[in-house]
Fold each of these.
Amino acid sequence: MGRKYQVIILSLFLLAFLTSEALAIPAFARKYSLSCKVCHTPFPKLKAYGDEFASNGFVIKDKETPRYNIDTGDGLLSLLREIPIAIRFDGFLNFNNAGSKGLDFSSPFVIKLLSGGELTKNIAYYLYFFFSERGEVAGLEDAFIMLNDLFKTDIDVYLGQFQVSDPLFKREVRLTYEDYRIYKVRVGQARANLTYDRGIMLTYGLPTGTDLTFEVVNGLGLLPADEVGSFDTDKYKNFMLRISQDVLKNLRVGAFGYTGKEKQAEAINTLWMLGADFTWGSPKLELNVQYVERRDDNPFFWVLSPEKVQTRGGFAELIYMPKADDSRWYTAAIFNWVDSEQPDLKYASAGLHYGYLLRRNMRVVAEGTYVFKSDLPKHFRLGLGLITAY
C-alpha cells in the first residue's frame, strides 16, 4: 500500500473524535445510566421516545431523576451538583470537484460545547457554543430556557434562540452532511429564514394526536445587538403557526404559515411562507417530505421601485434501517430543490449516505452528493468520516 493511501486511512481514524448533532448530549445518558439507543436510532436521529424526553424538559417521566442538586438547606435554591457538558468535534475528509479538485482535510470543521438539562421542576435549559465553525469562532446558536407544562397544562414555552424550523424537521439531528436547503434560503437582503432566530415558541399537544406550535421571532436571524443594545432593529415581529396531525398509525401530516416584515433604512419588505410536510415511517423505513412556498414583496429594499420575488422548494429524505432499532448499519437518500426568481438561489441536489455503528455512540459514514443546479457549475462531493459523542 502506497504512503499516500496510508496517510488517508490513518487520517480517517484520527477523526474518531467527531461527535453528534445537537440534542444528542451524552450527559443525558450518563445522568440516567441509559444507552443512547433509548432516544436515538441511530444517533443523533431522535426516536419518538427521544422527542418525548426533550419535550418533557429533558426528564424521563417514568424514571426517578437522579439527585443532581446540592442540598444547601435553602428550599428556594436550585443549584446543580454538576453541570452536564458534552463536546462535539467534527472533521471530514472531503473531495469536491467544484473546489480544488483534490482531497481536503476539513478538520476541525466544528468544535462545539453543549449543555442542557433540568434546572428545577418544569424548568430546563439547553445551549451549545461554537468554539470553531469552519475555522472561525461562531458563538451561540441554540440557547433557550424551557418552561414545561405551564400552568399545569400541556403548554411548553421556549424562550431564547432556536431554529424556526424545529417543529417541522430538526436540522441538527439529521443524519446527512447535506442540509435541508430550503430552510436556509434568504431572499435578497432580507434576513428572515427558517433557521436560527430569537423569540418565543409555544407548543401544545392535544389528545387527538394534534400538535400546535406558535412562534414569535425577531425575523433577523442571530445578528448581534446594535449600538443601543437592541437585537431587533425595527418595530416588527414575525409569526409562525404550525399544526401537525397523526392520520394513520405510521403517517403524520403537517402545515405551517409564516408572515412578517423587515425594515431597512426607509424601505420595508413584507414576506409570507406557506408549507406542507409529511412523515411516513415503519420500524425499518422512514420517508420525510417538506414543501415551502415563499413570497417577498421588496427583499432588496428599494425605495422607489420595489421588486417582488417568488421562491419555492423542498426536500425528500428516505432512511432505511434493516433491523430497526438494532441496526448496526443504515442508508439514507436526500433530494433538495429550490426554485426562485432570484437566480443565485436556485439549487437542486441528490445525495446518498451510508453509516455503520462501531459503537452506540460512534459511527463511520460515507456520503456522495451530486449538485446539478446551483450558482456554481454542476459538481459532486464525496466525504468520509467518523462521528462520536462523549
Amino acid sequence: MNRKCMGCGNILKDDELEHNICNRCFRLKHYGEYHVTNKDNSDYSKIINNIDSNDLVIYVTSLLNLTIMDLSKFNNVIVVLTKRDILPKSVKDNKIIDYVKNHYNFKDIEVISSIKNYNLDNLISKIEKYNKKKVYLIGNTNSGKSTLLNKLIENYSESDIDITTSMYPSTTLDTIEVKINDIEFIDTPGIIDNGSVINYIDSKMLKKITPKKEVKPRTYQIKGKGSLVIEDLVRIDYETNDNSMTIYIANSVNILRVGEANPRLKNLPKREFNLENDKDIVITDLCFIKFVKGLKVKIYANNNINVYERDNLI
C-alpha cells in the first residue's frame, strides 16, 4: 500500500519514506519554500462525494470571510467559525452565532481560535456527543482546517503528527487520517475559491494581507464623493450624504484616501452597489467593509475577485 505524507497527504516517493514527510512539506516547514501544485475542485469533489451522509462533518470557515457552502447532503454538521483571534475582542461570540443561525440552518455552531486554544474543549464536547467513528474536516483553502486538527492532536492525543500548515493555497493535497480518542479525524484538501484575492497576488503581498493578530478596524467618516485605495488591489469610490465606513483588514495593509478625480486603479474592472442600510461589502480573502447607512459604492478590482454585499456581521 502506498504511504502518505503526514504533512499534506500526498503519496510518498521512495526517498521520502524514511521520514514520513514529502520533500515539498520539508522545504515548506523548514525553509518557507512553497511550490505551487495544480489542483482543482474536481479532486475535492471526489473526496466529498465519498463521505457518507451519516458521518460527522466539521465545516470550517474563517470569520474574515464567513463563506458557507451547500451542506444539505450531510445529516450531521458542526459549523466551526475559526480565527476568532483576528476579530476585535469587543465583538461578542453570541452575536456572531446568532448571525449564522439567522442566515443558515445549522444546529451546532462553535466560534474558536486554534492559535489561542479558544473554545476547543467546547468543540470536542460537541463532536463526542454525536458518537461518530469518522469526522471529516472540510472547507475552503486557508480556512484553518489543518491548524485546527494540529491543535486537537496536541491537546487530546499522544500523537506527534504535525500536519503542514501555511498561508498558501492547496497546502493539503489529499486526505490525512488521524486517530484521537478512538475517533478518526480526516483532514481534506481545501475547496479552491477562484474568486479569492490570493489567486491573483504574489507571495510578498499574500504575507501582507494575511492577518497575524487581532485586526484594528479602520473607520472613515465619509461625506459627498471620495475614494479609498487598498494597496494596488482595490479602489473604493463612494457617494453619500453622511456616513461611516469601517474596514476589517490586516493591520499591515496600506489604505490611501484620494480624491474621486484621482485616476489610480480606475483602469480595473468596476462593480457598482446601491447599498441599503446596515450592509457589508466583502472582498474575498482580503477584507470586509461595514457601512452604517445606505450609499452608492463603486469597487474597482480584478474581475476574477469575488466582491459581494451581505448584512452587517458586526
Amino acid sequence: MSGAPPAISIRGLGKRYRIGSYLPTGGTLRGWFADRLSAKARAASAESNKPRYIWALRDLTLDVPTGSVIGIIGRNGVGKSTLLKILSRITDPTEGTAELYGKVASLLEVGTGFHGELTGRENIYLNGAISGMTRAEVDRRFDEIVAFSELEQFLDTPVKRYSSGMYVRLGFAVAAHLDPDILLVDEVLAVGDLSFQRRCLNRMNDVAQTGRTVIFVSHQMTAIRRLCNRTIWLEAGRIRDFGPTGEVVARYESESLGGAAPGGSGSREGAAYKARYLSWMRDGAPAGEAHVLSDLAPVAFRLVLDVRERIAAGYGGIEIFDPEGKLIWSGASYDGGRGDLALDPGKHALIYSLPMLPLKPGAYKLHASFYEREGRKLLDDWWAAPELIVSLPPSSHPDDEWQGILNLPCGLRVERE
C-alpha cells in the first residue's frame, strides 16, 4: 500500500483556539446588564484580560494512501475530533494545509448535517446533495440506506423527534452508502447499540475493501484493531506514534495504564533486601524484541534475581494480568514437581517456559514474587517493567471481532457420518 497515491496529504497542520475569551451578549436589556457586570468582573483582574491560546493540533505532517484504513487514538482533548473537523472542512486550520483527493463523507457528531425540521427522507436527499450526488444517484441507493438504518417507519417523521441513536443510524447509513472516496467517522458510533456498531464496522470494512479510504476515531481498541491496518496515536495535538495497529495500540494501552497494576510493591521499599528481581526479558529474543511476543511459538521468560544472602529453601512465582488487571495465567518454580530452590549470593536467572502464549494483541502485566520457605516470608513482590507487548496477527477471520482473551488457532476436520 506504500506505493498507492495519497488520498489525504497533510503538511504542517495546526489549529489554535483562544480560551477564556469574552463575547458580548448585547441585544436586550438583560444582555446589557450582563455585559456591564462581566466588564466590572474582568476589570478587577488584569490577568483575565490577557488573551490565552491553546494549540489543539500542531505540526502534523502525514500522507494517507488511497484505500487505507487509518485509526486515530489518544486521550480526550488531544485533537482527534479537531483533525476530523478540519478534514471535513467544518473548521479552518490556523496553519498548514490538508488536501483531500475525492468525495468526502463524514459522521462527526449526532445530527451533523441534518435539518431538524425536515423528515428522515428529506434529510437523506439533503445529505446526498451536500455530498455532490444527484437525485437519481440518491434514488439508486435509497432503499439500501433505509434498510441499513432500520428506520423505515420513521422516515416521514421530522428528525428533531429522533433519539440520539436514531440520529446516528440514519447519519451513518447516509454517509456510508453515498459512495464516498473518503469516509471520516468519529466516536459517535458509541451511541448505537452493539448490533448496530457491528454492522457499522462491517460496512466500513466493505468500504475499505473497494479501495476507498477510511479514517476512524475511537476509544474502543477492539474496534480499532479489527478495522484499521495502521493507527495514529495523538498526544497533546501532535503525532506520538504512527504504524501498524497492533503495535501502536499495545504501546498506547501500556502507557495509558501508567504501569499501574493491582496490589503494591511489597518488600521492595527500602535499600536493604535479601533477594530482589532486577529485570525480565523473553528468553532468546532478538534485539529490540526483548519484551514483545509476535508468534505462537514456545516462549520462556527470563527473570533475573539478585540474591544478597544465601537462601537455603525458596520458591518463586510469576503471573500475567490482562490490560484490565484480571489474572489470566500463573506459574511457580515448583510446578512439575520441582522442589525448593537453594540459591547462593549472586545473580540468578529464573526461566519460566510455556509451550505457547496464545493471547490477543495488547499490553500485559507480569507480576513476579519470591518467597523463603521458612515462615513463607515474602522476599520480593515485583510488577515487571516494561510490560509484555503482544502483537500477534489475528488467527480468526478478519471480519470477526476478538472474543475472550485467547488467540488460539482452531483446526477443523469434516467427516461423513
Amino acid sequence: MKTILVAFTAFLFSGIAKAQSIYISKDAQVSFFSSAPIENIEANTNQAVSAINMNTGSVFFKVPIKSFQFERDLMQEHFNSDYLESDKYPYAEFQGKIEPIPSIAKDGTYPVNVAGQLTIHGVTKPYQGPGTIEVKNGQIIAISSFKVKLADHDIKIPRLLLKNIAEVVDVKVNAAYQPQKEAGDARSSKSSS
C-alpha cells in the first residue's frame, strides 16, 4: 500500500509543488449500488488510497477490487471472478482534476466539478460529475458520486442475470485527507519517538 501512495504522490508532484498542498487519504471509502428488479446489490470498501494537490486540483484514487465487501459471500465471489476478473485487473484507478480549486485557508463546504479518466476492468473512460470539498480544521473531506455503465468497461452480464444486475451502477466516494508531511517533518517525528 505504501508503494501505491508513493507512486501517485509522485504523479501529483509533477511540476513544482509545496508539500503542504498535497493531502493523502489512506482509507478512502468507495461504495456502489446496483438496483435491479430481482435483487439490489451493494458493496463497500474503505481501503482506497487517494491524493489531492490543492495547488493544481489534481486528484488520484486507487481502489483494490478485492477489498469490496458484499452482504453475501457468493455475490463477492462472482463479482471478483466472473465480472471484474480481479486477479487480472486488481485495481480501479481515477486520475483527474477538481475545479474550481477551493481555498484551504478558510473552513467551509465548496461545490466542485470532478473530471478525469476512470480505469475499471482494464478499460479507461472519461468521467465527470459534481462533488464537494469540505475544509475543517486543516482536514479536507471530498465527496462525489457518479454512475458507471458496466458495458463501457467491457463488464459482461450473462443474459440469465440481466434482471439481477443493473447495467448502470451508482458509485459514491468519501475521502478524508490529511496534509502530506514534508521529509524533514517525518524525520523529526521519528527521532522524537
